[in-house]
Amino acid sequence: MLYCKNHAITMYSIITAFYIYIVYLIMSNPSLVNYLFLLLGIMICFFYQDGKLIVLSSIVSILLLGYFYTTQFSLIVESMTKFDVIYFILFIIFSAILYGYYARFTNRLWLKVFSEVKEKEEALHSAQEHFQAFFMYNNDAMVVVDLLGNVINVNPAYERIYGWKKEEILGEFLPSIPRTHIKEARQRFCRVENGERIIGFETVDMCKDGTLIHVEITISPIYDQFGKVIALSEICRDITERKATEELLRQRDKLVLAGEMAAGVAHEVRNPLTSLNGFIQLIHETDSKHRTYTTIMLSELKRINDIVGEFLLLAKPQSLHMEIGLLEKVLSDVTLLFKTEGALNNISISLEPFQEPAYIQGDTNQLKQVFINLLKNSLEAMPNGGKIVITPKTTEDGFVDIFIKDNGVGISKALLSKIQEPFFTTKEKGTGLGLVIIQNILHQHQGSFVIYDSKINEGTTVRVRLPVVNISQ
C-alpha cells in the first residue's frame, strides 16, 4: 500500500516537472519544434499505464497548445525555417521508436499475462478435477448444504448409504437428520457459519427406510471470493459396524469378568451347599412336623444349585467336540424339542426352510444349548400364547443368520442396553446368565448374537450369526 502511494507521487512529480520545463522552454524560445514536446508528455504517460494520468496529460497539453497558439502565433510563424523539417523528421523517428518499444513491451506483457492466466486456469482445472474425483469416488457420504441446511449437492456414497437419490432431496432440508436432532443440527450449522469447523463429531443419522445409523461427521464452511461463508460441506462416515464391534468387545470383557466371578463363587458355595442339602434332606425324611418348611428349603437349595451350575458352565472352559454338520439339523432337533411345550401353551413354532444347505463347524450340543435358551426366552415372553418363527438367511460374506421372531411382550428401550449384562434379569427366578452363556458359546464358534428388533407388546427378533463352512473345498 505504501509502495503504491509513493509510486503515484513519483509519477505525478515527474510529469509535472516535465510540463514545467516545457512551458519554460516554449516561453524562452517560442519555436514550432518546442511545441512538439507537449506531445512527448502524453507519450511518457503511456509507459505508466495510468488512465487518469494520460487524460490529465492530454488536457494539459491541449490547454498549453491552445494558449501558446493564441498568444504567440506570430512569434511561432516568424521563427519557422526550412531547417525545422529535420526536427519534424527526428521527432517522427523518435516517436516511431518510442511506440515500437512500447508495442514490444506491451506484447511481452500481454504474453506474460496470458501465460500466467493459462497456468492458473490449468491449476484451477486440475484442482477442480481433484475435488470432483474426491467428491464422486469417496467412500464416505458427502453433502453440500446452504446456510439453512437445504441440500445443494450429494455424492454417490450418500445415495448408497442413506438411500435417497440426489434428485429427490435437492433444495430440501437435509433428510438424514432425525427430527429429534434437528435443533442440535441447526446449532452446529450456526457455529460453522461463524467460521468454526466441526471435526469427528459422533451422532445418529436416519436412512430413507427409517434405519438409524451411527455416523462421525465433519462440517466445514465454504467461502466465496470475499471470504464470506456461503455454504457448508459435511462428510459423514458410517461407524455403525465400529460401534457394534466396540459393544462386542465390551460384552466380551464382561464375559471374562463374569467367568472370573463365577469360578470363585461356584467353588466356594458348592461344598457347603451339598452339606446343607444333605442335612435338610435328612430332616425332611425324619421330621414330618417341619416338612412344609423343609420342602421350601429344598426347593430354594435346588434353585441355588441351578445357579451355581450356570456359574460353573460359564466359568469352566468346555471341551468342544467340533465337527462339520448341517445347521438345519440342529434347529430341527431344537424345534421338535419345544413343539409339545409350545402346543400346551398355545404357541406355534415354525422353522422356515433354508435357501441352500448351511454347513457349520461346531459343537452340536453347545449350539443346541444356544437355541434352547433363546426359544425358552421366547416361550416365557408369550404367557397368552402366540407364534415363534425361525428364519435362516445366508449372507454374501460367508455367514448364516438365524432370526428368531416372537410376538410376545417385547423389551423396552431402557432394558435393551442392560439385558445382555451379566446377572441382569427381569425374571423372578432368573439368574441373568442365560444370554451371557449364549454369547460365550457363540464367541467360541466365531459367531455373534444381537437383539435385532424389539417393540413393547409387538414382540422381539434376535439374530444368531455363524460362519458357514464350504465343504466343496
Automatic annotation (TrEMBL):
InterPro entries the UniProt entry points to: HATPase_C_sf (IPR036890), HATPase_dom (IPR003594), His_kinase_dom (IPR005467), HisK_dim/P_dom (IPR003661), HisK_dim/P_sf (IPR036097), PAC (IPR001610), PAS (IPR000014), PAS-assoc_C (IPR000700)
TM region(s), chain numbering: 7-26, 32-48, 53-70, 85-102
Keyword Iron among record annotations: no
Keywords: ATP-binding, Kinase, Membrane, Nucleotide-binding, Phosphoprotein, Transferase, Transmembrane, Transmembrane helix, Two-component regulatory system
Annotated PROSITE patterns: HIS_KIN, PAC, PAS
Catalytic activity: ATP + protein L-histidine = ADP + protein N-phospho-L-histidine
Histidine kinase domain sequence ranges: 264-470
PAC domain segment(s): 197-251
EC number: 2.7.13.3
Top EC class of this enzyme: transferase
All copies of domain PAS, residue ranges: 127-172
Any Pfam family the entry gives: PAS_4
Gene Ontology molecular function: ATP binding; phosphorelay sensor kinase activity
SUPFAM superfamilies (alphabetical): ATPase domain of HSP90 chaperone/DNA topoisomerase II/histidine kinase (SSF55874), Homodimeric domain of signal transducing histidine kinase (SSF47384), PYP-like sensor domain (PAS domain) (SSF55785)
PANTHER family according to UniProt: SENSOR HISTIDINE KINASE, SPORULATION KINASE A
Name of this protein: histidine kinase
